[in-house]
Structure formats: C-alpha cells, structure tokens
Amino acid sequence: MKTTILIIALTFALANVMAQKASGDKFQKYLPIIEKGSIAQKDSLTNVLLTEIKSYKTEQEFRTTINILRSLGKEQQQASVEAIAKKKYPKGSLTRDAFITNVFYNASTVQEKEKAYNDLNKKWPSKNFSEELLTYDYVLANLAQGFANDGNAPKAIHYLGEMKEKFWRGNGYLPVGQILLSAGDTVTAAPILKTAMDDSYYYLSLPEDQKDNKARFASMGYASSMSAYVNILVAQKKYNDALGYIENALKAAPEQADGLAMVYYKSLMGTGRKLEAYNILTKLYAKGQFAVENDLKKLYLELNGSAQGYENFNASLKETLTQTIRDHIKEMATFKPAPNFELLNLKGEKVSLASLKGKVVILDFWATWCQPCVRSFPGMKAAQESYANDKDVQFLFMNTWERDKNYKENVLSFITKNNYPFEVLYDDQKDPQTGEVMAAKFGVKGIPAKFIIDKEGNIRYFLTGSTPNVDYIKLEMKELIEAAKKPFKG
C-alpha cells in the first residue's frame, strides 16, 4: 500500500512539473508576438487562444492562457477566461488567489485577516497546493506583521512558525523582528532576527554548484538580517560577539560588505579598533554616504591629534567620488532621439515631451509595487530640489506597469502620503498600432529605469537599478544633467 501511495505521489509530482514546463514552453512560443507583434497579430493570437479553451483539461492550461492575454493587454478577454476557469474549478488556485487578494489583503483589521486566513485554509488547504506553498507564506508573513504592529508578539511568532518555505521565510521574519525591535521588545526580536540571519547564511554558504535561484534569493537578505541582529548585540555592548558574526559574514559574502559597514564600524569602535573603524568610514564617505561625516571628522581628530589637513582630506574623498561617478556614467552614455509622448499627470493635464524642448528632461519609470523604485525616491527628491531654481531642467516620474485597476488612486495616494513633489505622468496610453505603452517604446525591460534627455530631445544617458544613498543619487544626477546640458561630441 505504501509503495502504491509513493508511486501515485511521484506520478503526480512529475505530472505537475511537466504541466509547468508545457506552460512555460507555450508562453515562450508566443513571446515574439507579445513583445513585438502588431495589433493584428495580437488580435489573431487572442482569437486562437479563445478558441482553444474549449479543449482545456486542466486549470494550468487556463492559467497559461490568462497570463498570455494579460501580457497582450487583452483585459476583457482575460477576465472572461478567468470567469470560465473559476466556474470550472471552484476550489482551484484562481478562486483561491482572488480570495486572497479581495478578502484577505483588503481586510481592515488583523482580526479580520486572521478570520480570512482560517477560511482560506478550510476551502483551499495548503496540502492541496504542495507546489505553491509560497503563496501561503506570503499570507502568513503579512498576518504576522499585522499582529506585530498590533503589539501581539505571541500571535506574530505563531504565524511565522507556520511558514513552510525556508528559502523565503526570512522575508517574513525580518520585518516582524524589526517591528518588535522598534517597539523596544529586544528579547522577542533577537531570536526572530537570528533565524532570518541563519537561514540566509545557510543558503549563502552552499557550494556554488548547489546554489539555485532560491538559494541566491535567500542569500541576498543576509546583510539586512545580519545588521539587524548584530545591532542588538552592539546595543548590549557584546562587541566581540558582534565582530565574530560580521567577520565570518565578510568571509562568506564579501560582496555584502557595504550593507554591513555601519554595524561593523560600531563593533570596531566598541572594541577600541579605531583605525579599522576609521578606514570603514572613509570608504563609506568616498561612496557618497556623507551622513557619516561627523563621525569621520571626530575619528580623524582622535587619530591625528588635530583637525589639520582634514578639509583637504575631505575634498579629496569627494573628488575621488565625483571622478568615479564620471567614469561610471560614460558606460550609460548613448545618443538617439527620444520617442515623443503626450500623457496625463495627476491633475489630468496633458504633458508632452515636445512642450519641454529646450530643457534637460529626466524620465524616471517606476511603479508603486517596485521596491527598488521607491527606495531611490528620497534621493531623487533631493536631486530635484537641488535643481528647483533651474528652469532648464525638468524631472518627470513615469508611472508604468501598475497591476491594479484602481492604479490612479493608488499612485495619487502614494505620492501624497509620502509628500513627494514630483510631476507624475501615467504611462497608460497604448499605441494604436502596436499596443505598447511608452516604457516599451523607450526599450524599458525592467524598472526603475531612468533616461536623461537633452534640450534637443535626444536620449543622452540611460541607467537602471537603484540605491537608497541620497547623497550618491544627488551627485550622480548632477553629473548626468550637467553633461546633458553640453553639446553632444560623438
């Protein structure tokens, strides 16, 4: 009997893998039309898919077609296929996901969320979706954070304990630990943060040939969880313990040195290793983290016995950083006409690129769900404010790829709540020939994506990625803008 059950389980798992592969193959098959097809080609593909659904035998086939229709921008047809699939599979993943989105995430209190979670487990128990446990971990992490914010640490810990995917659970543990830490509950926060740190270290220390995408994702959180946990040790003046963790981390993941720099500095100071601490601050300052300047100057004075020579030293660090940025932006240089656009801003007014001729324009493509985009906004705000009196410079924040139907309200709420003085444009106007939004016309493959356009309407620089370093962003934007003001030399 056990052998029969095992065979059935293995057969099911293999069938699931094969179904997912077939789904991916089908999406890849139509990718050229999705990305570069004409309206006629996209319409034709839509008709083919709508005809096919009559023969579908599994929910996965429906999901694949729904994803393709979503990528084609066929929202009405997508909704129609979703309705058919939900009716055919009332206890399937589509109805489950709709419940999570519409009931769980829209609950106004953590008690309502807890009830929704219990209802979720009754109708769509995780044991029926063994390949999708991450979906349940997202819910558990959100629920745990809700209880942590309510000051109910026992409930938060309980729901964290129900998470199943070890590679991802640090993403639930870390925010809860930080919430408890900010509330002064160090005793409860410490083991939570240590769990997140240990999980990340486990994946980080795997041999390279065993590091899959999950392991790489998990290891990325090491610096954050390490810093949070070691900061507790530093606050408790356990500097040697802190240094042990940090120096072990730097051997295993030297690329995360920047993320650990401040807590390393504090630990070194606590053990009297001031010269090493000074060297760390010097590196941070030379990378544009000017917030450390007071500590740097104080250490300079202690180590040298006077402030003589400090100003020259400081200036040389800034000059080195500026030169580094200038060398870096050469890699971003390009020269081609920018696609023209006419889009609506938050007030419903039309803004076109043509109307801004004679100005250097900074386009920042972003979305509310994009954490790297949002992470760079304090720096972009500072950069914009530094050019507030320059009438020849215009910042535009191109909101694109939003996922919710009420995205306009969400965007306005986000900008207002965070008091960002940005000129935001909605990139939601599809080209009648290609069906593309402006991000696609600019060649954007991922966000954040920034374009620096000169006074003649030519793209001079294109950059991706982000940093939370406000001072670095200010300097980088200054170099990009000032370079774009100058005539193109080829």
Automatic annotation (TrEMBL):
CDD domains referenced in this protein's UniProt entry, alphabetically: TlpA_like_family (cd02966)
Organism listed in the record: Sphingobacterium anhuiense
InterPro entries tied to this protein: AhpC/TSA (IPR000866), Thioredoxin-like_sf (IPR036249), Thioredoxin_domain (IPR013766), Thioredoxin_ResA/DsbE_sf (IPR050553), TPR-like_helical_dom_sf (IPR011990)
Protein name, per record: Redoxin domain-containing protein
Signal peptide residues on this chain, from the entry's feature table: 1-21
Domain of life: Bacteria
Domain Thioredoxin: 332-486
Coiled coil region boundaries: none
Record key words, sorted: Signal
